[in-house]
Write a structure and sequence with these properties.
alpha+beta; 5-stranded antiparallel sheet; about 450 residues; SH3 type barrels; 11 strands; 3-stranded antiparallel sheet
Amino acid sequence: MQTLPMPEIDDIYEFIQTAVRSVGGEIASPWFYFQIGLILAGAGIAHLIAVALRTRVDFTSFAMGWPAAFRLAARALLRNSAFGAFAALMGMARIVMVASTWPSRSYLLVVAANLAAAWLLIRLATSLIRNETAVKLVSVTAWGIAALSILGLLDQTTAALDAMAISFGGHRLSLLLAIKVGALLAFALWLANVAGKFIDARISNLSDLTPSVRALTSKLARILLICLAVVIVLAAAGVDLSALAIFSGAIGVGIGFGLQKIVGNFVSGVILLADKSVKPGDIVTIGESHGQVRAMNTRYISVTGNDGREFLIPNEKLVTERVVNWTYFDSNTRIDVTFSTSYEANPRRVCEIAAEIAKATPRVAHIKQPSCSIVEFGEHSMRFSLSFWITDPEKGMGNVRSQVMLALWDAFRVEGAESKYPIRDMRIDDAPPAVPSAEAHLR
C-alpha cells in the first residue's frame, strides 16, 4: 500500500497567495464594510419579521387540512422564514447597489443572499424526512457543499480531497471517493427502507397469504433491497467490485467465529417462517415463557405474556428446544382443573355439579362437553379432575380457570360438600426457656 503524491507545494502556495491578495483587496475597500453593515441590518430585520410571524401563527394548526407533503413544507418554510426574509432583503439591496454603483461593490450581498436561499431550499427539501438527526446531518452537509459552490471553492476542495488517496492491489481509494460512497450509501439505504415499508404495507393487505409467509416475504424483500442498494452505490461511485474479493476471507472467518449465533438465529428465523411451526398470533410456551407471538424478526421472536412483559426469544432456541404451541392446528385448548372434597360427599353428584358449572361458565366452548372424573382416594379427601375446552386462549387461560374454581366453591358450599384438611399439632421437646421481657421485670 502506498500513498499517492500530494499536489505540488508551489501550486498550493500560489493558491494561498492569490486568496490572501483577493481578501486583502476586499477588506481594504470601504464598500466591504458598507456591505457588512447592510448584511447585519438585514439579519436584524429578518429576525424581527420571523418573530412577528411566530407570534401570529400557530404551528400546530397551521396548514392542518393540506396534504402531508405540502403541510410539512409549509411548516418548514414558516420555521425558516428568517432565512427567506434575509435572502429577499439582500436581493433588493443588491438591485439597488447595481443600479447606483459598480456591481463588484455588492459581491458580499450576492453571497449572503445565495447562502440564505440555499439553506431555505435545503430545509424545504428535508422537511419530508421524519428523523430529526438525519435532517440536521443532511441539511448541514448539503449546505456546506452549496456554500463551497457559491464561494467558488468547490472544484479546489474536491481536487484536494481526491489527492488524499492510497493505493492497494492496483486500486485507488481517495477521501473524496469515500465521502461520495458514504453519502450515496446513506441515501440508498434510506430509499431501501422507504421501499421496504411500502412493500410491507402492501404485503400485509394480502389476506390470501398466511402470517408466516407474509413475514418471510417482507424480510426477504428488505434484504434484497439493501443488497441491491449497496451494489448500485458501489458501481455508481466507480468502485471496482472485484476489489471486495480481498475481504471475503476476513468475512468468512468472522462468520465462522464471531457471527455464529447471528447467522444461526437468522437461518433459524427463515426456517420458522418457511415451515410455519410458529407464526404471529400463536400462543406458545417456551421454557418458563408463555404468551402470544406478536412479531417474528430476523434474530428473535417477540412473545407478549399475560402480565404485559415482552419476551425476546432467539430464533435458534425455537429450533433446538422444546416448544409448546397451543394453537398450532387450531385455537381449541383444553383446560384441566383439579379439586378435592370430603368423603361425606357423593362423588357422582360432585362430577355432575362440576360438569354443569363448567358448561355454564362464559368462554367455555361446547365443541366437547365438559367432563369430570375422580382420580384419587386421598388420605383425607377425594380428588377430582374437571376438563373443559375454550376457543380463545389468547384472552387468557388463568382467568377462565379461576371463574370455574370460584363457581365450584360456591356450589359445594350450597351442597355441603366441603374439603376437609387435617389439623396438625406441632410439639417441640427440649425447647429453651423463654427469656423474661423487660416489662416482666418492671412488674
